[in-house]
TrEMBL record:
<dbReference type="InterPro" id="IPR005064">
    <property type="entry name" value="BUG"/>
</dbReference>
<dbReference type="InterPro" id="IPR042100">
    <property type="entry name" value="Bug_dom1"/>
</dbReference>
<dbReference type="Pfam" id="PF03401">
    <property type="entry name" value="TctC"/>
</dbReference>
<comment type="similarity">
    <text>Belongs to the UPF0065 (bug) family.</text>
</comment>
<keyword id="KW-0732">Signal</keyword>
<feature type="signal peptide">
    <location>
        <begin position="1"/>
        <end position="26"/>
    </location>
</feature>
<protein>
    <submittedName>
        <fullName>Tripartite tricarboxylate transporter substrate binding protein</fullName>
    </submittedName>
</protein>
<feature type="region of interest" description="Disordered">
    <location>
        <begin position="24"/>
        <end position="63"/>
    </location>
</feature>
<feature type="compositionally biased region" description="Low complexity">
    <location>
        <begin position="24"/>
        <end position="39"/>
    </location>
</feature>
């Protein structure tokens, strides 16, 4: 009887231990399975986040941005670059630091060469205008707008033709009447090279007025002495941007005979400048000004900058800048800008060929 009872107790203990072992194993498996599933879910979530970011194609700068002004300090490119950088930061449009670097020389060619070496970089931009079409066309640069990434145009500036305050000419018709009789009797100075912007903007208006443009005497002074040459009587006419004339007009040292805008621009002093059109000369010249990236800029970076320059153009802060410098709003996105540049190049090429300056 005792033996049978011992056997029964032993059997019961074996069953109890087996049950405990099975339960423990099951809990371990469930715990392990739960951890495994959580890890899998987290990994799947991370991968999904990365996939969504990649699919969205969004990009934003993670280090400072450099904007190159391919000329010296104080000119139109330099002012545009610095004002854009200032508004980008102060208006909170771009959070990253933006530095402006001057790369003067060759009518812009030195700066373009520098940017061409930044192939694909989303951190190197530059500002430009008509010379990026003109300078390559007259053979002074191997780089043209096709070699870069047009991002956006932001403003329209205009030319002004100024003379000394005591000049005998009071308007463009007086000037061009004398030039029709003897074009070479008048010396025109500009800060750009022959065949570039300051030259061509004057030539275009003079041609519309009936002057033989092949005989116009144009002098290039790229060292900042053009205004001095006008004031000391070495030259007769100064072809420049309207903003560059304001202070000297205020000081009573020069007078502006005409500007190349479609209509008068707004602003102190500026609104007094007559257009060529209101003087019966049916021609205008727009010194558009916009921004480019290096060759082969990634589409995501291009999309980012295109959006930011539109915000810049629409901002009240940049509207104040335009008013201060007599600039007009002229925003174009990358696609429209590219088409505009292609058309402008063809138009300008005709003038250069007529002058014998085309390559």
């Amino acid at each position: 009887m005792k033996k049978a009872l011992s056997i029964l107790v032993f059997a019961f203990l074996l069953l109890f231990l087996a049950a405990c072992s099975s339960g423990s194993s099951g809990e371990d498996e469930n715990a392990g399975g739960s951890n495994s599933d959580s890890g899998s879910d987290a990994e799947e979530k991370d991968n999904s986040s990365e996939d969504n970011q990649a699919d969205s194609g969004e990009w934003s700068p993670e280090k400072p941005i450099e904007i190159v002004a391919p000329a010296g300090a104080g000119g139109g490119w330099d002012t545009t670059a610095r004002m854009a950088a200032k508004v980008f930061n102060e208006a909170g449009i771009i959070d990253q630091d933006i530095g402006v670097v001057n790369k003067p020389g060759g009518g812009g060619a030195v700066g373009w060469s520098y940017i061409a070496e930044k192939d694909g970089s989303p951190y190197n931009l530059f500002v430009s205008s008509s010379p990026i079409l003109l300078v390559p066309l007259n053979g002074q640069s191997q780089y043209g707008h096709e070699d870069f990434t047009p991002i956006a145009n932001v403003i329209a500036d205009y030319a002004a033709f100024a003379v000394k305050a005591d000049s005998k000419w009071d308007n463009l018709n007086d000037l061009f009447d004398d030039m029709k009789e003897d074009p070479s009797s008048v010396t025109v100075v500009g800060a750009s090279s022959p065949g570039s912007m300051d030259h061509i903007q004057f030539v275009k208006i003079a041609k519309a007025a009936g002057v033989d443009i092949t005989k116009i005497k144009y002098v290039s002074d790229q060292d900042g002495g053009a205004l001095t040459s006008l004031l000391n009587g070495s030259v007769d006419v100064y072809s420049t941007g309207i903003a560059e004339t304001v202070e000297q007009v205020k000081a009573g040292k020069i007078k502006v005979l005409g500007i190349t805008a479609e209509e008068r621009v707004e602003g102190e002093v500026l609104s007094d400048f007559p257009t060529a059109k209101e003087q019966g000369i049916d021609a205008t010249f727009v010194n558009w000004r916009g921004f480019f990236g290096p060759p082969n800029m990634d589409q995501a970076a291009l999309d980012y900058y295109e959006k930011k320059f539109k915000e810049l153009s629409d901002s009240p802060e940049f509207a104040d800048v335009r008013a201060k410098y007599g600039w007009n709003e002229m925003y174009m996105n990358s696609q429209d800008y590219t088409e505009f540049l292609n058309n402008e190049k063809e138009s300008i090429k005709g003038l250069l060929d007529e002058l014998g300056l085309g390559k």
